[in-house]
């Protein structure tokens, strides 16, 4: 997959599917450092991976898989998840920050992709949770209990409770 930069007019905020003069698709790529309007040339060679796999190999996650118009880098998704978890930053505030970083004088000229950020971040959180639970390379669907993270504070027989805990600790009612 080759990526080439396309110069876009200053006030370009249209959300319709756009094409460059050479008929290549122009997509919005959201990164931690800026929001870019870039022309993307997908590899169409015989035996090449699907579009989503090409994007994943480049460290990119599309907001949708049918018609790709917005792409998020793994870096921005990880950064948003950490900001959301540690700083309680909302998606709206985080995207507003990205707009300001991109064009500090005119952030309203930067395309709004807030809804796409919300969708992609939910998908990214699910993918990272599946990877942490060991389901990254299998086709098996995890059951709800398999996705739980081990907690050493929870009482568990044989781990942090003695085998005869029912005799030692009588229930008090």
Can you walk through the features of this model?
This protein has 173 residues and is of the alpha+beta class. 32% of the residues lie in helices and 15% in strands. Strands 1, 2, 3, 4, 5 and 6 form a six-stranded mixed sheet that branches. Helix 2 (74-86) packs across helix 4 (114-132).
Which helices and strands occur, and which strands form pairs?
Blueprint: E1 2-5, E2 18-19, E3 25-30, E4 35-41, H1 51-57, E5 60-62, E6 70-73, H2 74-86, H3 91-102, H4 114-132, H5 165-168
Helix pairs in contact: 2-4
Provide a quick synopsis of the model:
The chain is an alpha+beta fold and 173 residues long. The chain has helices at residues 51-57, 74-86, 91-102, 114-132, 165-168; strands spanning 2-5, 18-19, 25-30, 35-41, 60-62, 70-73.
Question: What are the salient characteristics of this protein?
Answer:
alpha+beta; 5 helices; 6 strands; single chain; 6-stranded mixed beta sheet; 173 residues
């Amino acid at each position: 997959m080759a990526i080439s930069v396309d110069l876009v007019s200053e006030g370009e905020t249209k959300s319709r599917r756009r094409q460059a003069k050479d008929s290549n698709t122009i997509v919005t790529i959201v990164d931690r450092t800026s929001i870019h309007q870039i022309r993307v040339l997908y590899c169409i060679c015989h035996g090449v991976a699907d579009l989503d796999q090409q994007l994943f190999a480049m460290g990119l996650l599309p907001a949708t898989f049918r018609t790709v118009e917005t792409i998020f880098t793994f870096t921005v998704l990880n950064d948003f998840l950490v900001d959301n978890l540690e700083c309680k930053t909302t998606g709206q505030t985080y995207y507003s920050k990205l707009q300001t970083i991109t064009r500090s004088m005119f952030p309203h000229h930067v395309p709004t992709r807030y809804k796409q950020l919300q969708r992609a971040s939910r998908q990214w959180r699910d993918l990272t949770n599946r990877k942490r639970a060991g389901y990254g390379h299998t086709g098996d669907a995890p059951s709800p209990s398999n996705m739980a993270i081990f907690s050493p504070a929870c009482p568990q027989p044989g781990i942090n409770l003695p085998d005869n805990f029912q005799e030692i600790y009588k229930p008090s009612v």
